[in-house]
Structure formats: structure tokens, C-alpha cells
Amino acid sequence: EDGPWVQHINGEGTDAPGRNNNCVDVALSTADTLSGNPTAAAARTPDTGPDGLPSDRGETNGRNRIENALGARFSDMGDGRNAFNRLENTLRDSGHGSQAVIITQDANGRAHAWNAVNHNGRITYIDAQTGRTSRTPLHDGKNGVFAVPLDANRRPVSPQTTPTATDASKSGSSPKRDSPNSPNSPTESRRAPEAPAGAPYPTAEDTPHPRDEPNRTNHPRLGAPETAKSTPHHGMHPMPDQQHLRTTNNVRQVGMDHVHQQLNDWMEPRTVQHPDGTETTRIPLVDALQAGTPPNSADGSPAPVTLRRSDLERLLPGFADMHPGEQGAVVASLARLSLKFHEAHAVGASPEHSADQPSRGAEAHAKAQWPARNRDEQELKDSIIAEFDKSGIAGALRDSGEHRPDFTGRNYAVIEVHDPTTGEISYLVDSSYPNVTGEKGKHSESNILDYLEKVNATREDGKKYEPLSLYTDREPCGFGQGHANCSNALSQRIPGVDVFYGTGYRKNGELVDGASPGVNRKALYDRDLAKNMAALGKVWVRAMGEGGLRVPAQS
Fold it and tell me: What share of the chain in percent tops pLDDT 70?
């Protein structure tokens, strides 16, 4: 999708006469162009209605013209996000260069034709009539998604029109969630709309802003925002700047048990059906860890492949059903579980690549050991012995390859950002890091916010990445020795943004009535983090063994 070619297929654009109702010709011209035959779309003279006046409806027999040109009928993919998941699976299974012509319609029955293409495994949606592209669907498809998929040689392929594991959610549903008669599932009787028209048509610009998504305010596991003294940890109230953060931002603690359960659920194999009738067994968590590609040279060649929220929703069934704090905790966990995932979504890689900005957190991760305090649970010890035998922890880290874990006490933070130019949501995750030669160390929150600020400095107003939420493994710290006052930084730099944390992290805060002042609370906070590290450690051992990520050293 590089370059402005999409914006030139439809001439002067939808403001020119005959170019806001010509989506059939635009979609076919796009298909030709994607096949290596650059083609411009023609303007269209409207059909005449029964009254003899120009009709504002679509091209008569437009659907049939597309089908005749492509050599196949439109297939009913279903409705909404699940329908696009099926289409994306079909294109990925069909390989690089595969594409599809799509027809969707709005609630008023106005139909629209547009396109999608698979470029090296990344699906891009194209609406050349309006000149827009996106990694996520440009139209919601709630009233039907119909498609003619084509392989790289422009030959029709049989689409995946049955629900698969990627359609399923672990929140009480199974891979067969969509019954044949459910509104999300394809039907045998529906045909694509006969007369696609085009703009004006709802686009991503007309949809609600992601900050208004219901799961940000109404979710069964989303409690009320904390107040200054509503949530003591180990008998201690928040420090003063931590209390102030709760007046500038909604702050909530994430229940990590559900996050860890989901990570384990994603280690269960799932059967995926392919258009040719074959089946493969996939492990969602392993797929997610493998999917990202970090930059591997200073000049950015190749550029990293980072996963957007839509990618994680596709790869991890049930991810879409989590609230933003849980989603952030998942991303932080994936980064801890795998150096490869960390590098692909860290400073210098996400949401945009910057060749001159290495991730100091990832550099520290590459050398990370596994402290005994963070693997003290007997169940974890037993699983390490069972998988790595006598080689133990040293062997586990040696055999981890690109998926080396980071179960140290370094904090990981994740910021969820919205790109107003594409509608995509991305994650930037990185850790704290110590002082290095010529550079002072940073806490994780400042690390990611500094990079986001650098990226946004290259964008015009109105096109800058918008922070939606921030998750941090430890509660943002206050002011004091060993604390960098991240709470104050968040209050000043991203006021109003939802903040989530995994475990408490306080020092010299006011004690609740009756709390003993002689308790070593730092040890208790460290123990809480160690509990989370042990839970992740068990997931990582499963990924190494059951998931096949272990790379035994050559003898």
C-alpha cells in the first residue's frame, strides 16, 4: 500500500461529477492494479429512474458485472468483524498477492464495493473511490459482507465461510459459536446487493471514537475508579502524588488471575479449517509470539512487523472481550514472555519504526536472568525440571532463543494509542532500564511516553497518535528514594487517560488505622510482583515445551 496510487485510481475524487457513484468500476480497476495492470476508473453517468430523472442508487447489474469480470460469484462471509476475520483468513491462506473485491451495505440498503489485499501476510483494506486504506475494515459490514477472493494470479479461490477458532471467544463460547442461522454467520440464501453505488457512505471517520467503546466504562471486571484512599495495599494508602493521579486520571487495578487464565487458555491447541478443506492445529499464544518481527538492523531493513489490536483480536480468541486494562496486561505479558515480541513492539518499533532509537529495555531483556525469588513456587520449579531436566534455569534460558523471557523485577508498561489517520489501535510496550554509558536510566512509563512524544513530533496536529489507556505491571510510583514519581509524570503528560496497574507499589505512604509500622512492605510488594512472574513463568515453560518454541543448543 506504499505510495499515493490508491488516491489516483478515481481521478479527481468523489467531489468530481460521476465519481461518487462509480464504486463498481473503481473496485475492478483496483483489482486490475493489484494484479499488475495499473488501471484508472471511469466516471459514471447515473442510471435513469422510473421518473426519467437521474437515480442516486447504484449501478444496475453492478454486482453481475463484477462477478463476470472476476469469474466467480460473491460469497456471503457473514456479518461484522467475524465476517472480516473469515475473509482475512482466506487471504492469508491464499498467500502473498491474494486479494478480494468486497460488497457491504449500510442500514439503509445502500451498497458499496471496495477491496482488500494480502501483502506479505498483512491485510490492507482499500477504498480507492475515497482514496483511503487501512489495516482494519473501512466499513463495518454489520448488514452483510460479501466477497470474491482471488489468488495472486487473479484466479478465484473458495473462501472460508464457516466459523473458525478465530471467530470464537473464550468467554463462554466455543469455535462453533455462530450457528448457521446466527446474524454473524453466512447464509446459503443471501446474495450480494445487486447495485453497488458508493460515496457518500459511512467510513471509519463516521464511526464512534474508540475512546467511546463500551468496554472502557461498562465491563463486568471493570471496577469503579480508585479514589485517594479507597484502595490501600498492605495497610498503606497511596503516596501524595499517587493520590493526585487519582484526581487527574481514572486509576484501576487489574485482576491478574483472569489475565493468567487467558494466557493458559491460549496455550490450548485449536483446529483451524482452510478453504481447501484441510485443517491445521494452531496454538494461539504461540502464533501471537511468533507473528511480530523486530527490526534487525540500524537502517530498519527490514522494517518491523508490529501487531495492531485487530491482529491480537484475530490471533487470540477472547482478547476483544477483555477491557483495556486486561488487554494492556496481556501485551505486557507477551513482551515479558518473548524478547522477539518485546523488540517488535518496543521503543523504536511501535507504533512507528525509528532506526535511530534503540530500545534500551529490549537490550536489557536480551541479558535478563531469572531471579530465584521470581521462581520460588514449587509448581513452577517442578515444571522447569520436567521440561528442561538437569539443565535447569541455565538450560531454559540457553534454549529460549529469540523468545528469551524477562522475569526480573524490571517494570513493563504499555500505552494503547489510536491513529486518527487510519483508525488503527496499536500498543507500545517497554520496560524500565538501568543507567547505561552516557545515558541515565528510565522508568518504563517515561520510557514509552518519551518515544510516543518523539513520534508525534513528526505528525501534524490532528494526525498525532492519541493515548487511550496505559497499563503498568507495578502501580505508578510516587516521590521518594528509588521512586521516579511516575504518578506525577502521568498526571502532567496524559491527564484524563485511563491508567491500570497490576500490583501495588508504595513507600512511606500514610498507614490505615491499626496497620503496623514495622512491617517490611517493600518485601510484600515485591512478593506480589513475584507471584505474577511465577504465573508467567509457568506459561512460558508451556510455550517452550507444548508450544514448540524451545531451541535446544547444538551439541
Answer: 86
Name the burial class of residue 294, with classes exposed (0-12), middle (13-18) and buried (19+) by CB atoms within 10 angstroms of its CB: buried
Q: Which stretches within 407-469 are classed as H helix?
A: 444-456
Which among 249, 445, 258, 420 has a CA at the least distance from the CA of 351? 420
Q: Per-residue DSSP letters for 133-194?
A: EESS-SS--TT-EEEEEE-TTS-B-----S--GGG--TTT--TT-S-TTSTTS--SS----S
Q: What percent of the chain has pLDDT over 90?
A: 59
521-545 and 284-291 helices cross at what angle (nearest 10)? 100
More confident residue, 181 or 374: 374
Lowest mean pLDDT segment, chosen from 13-17, 123-127, 321-325, 335-339: 13-17
The answer to whether 325 and 254 have CB atoms below 8 angstroms apart is: yes
Q: How many CB atoms lie within 10 A of CB 101?
A: 27
Q: How high is the pLDDT of residue 298? A: 52
- Closest to 454 (Cα-Cα) out of 364, 372, 349: 349
Rounded Cα–Cα distance for residues 133 and 421 (Å):
10
At 356, phi and psi to the nearest 5?
A: -100, 15
Q: CA geometry: angle at 334 spanning 374 and 164, to 5°?
A: 135
Three-class DSSP category at 528? helix
